[in-house]
Amino acid sequence: MPDPVEIAVISSALPATLTFIYQRLERLLSTRRTEPEQDLTVPDGLVGTLQLPLHPNEDTLQARQGELELLRELLQDYATGQVPVTTTDRRLLRSMTKLRATLEDIYGQRLTFKGEDRPASGPFVHQRLTTLTGKATGMHGDEISGSAHVTQEVETVDASAKLIGMKARRIGG
Question: Phi and psi of 54, rounded to 5°?
Answer without folding.
Answer: -70, 130
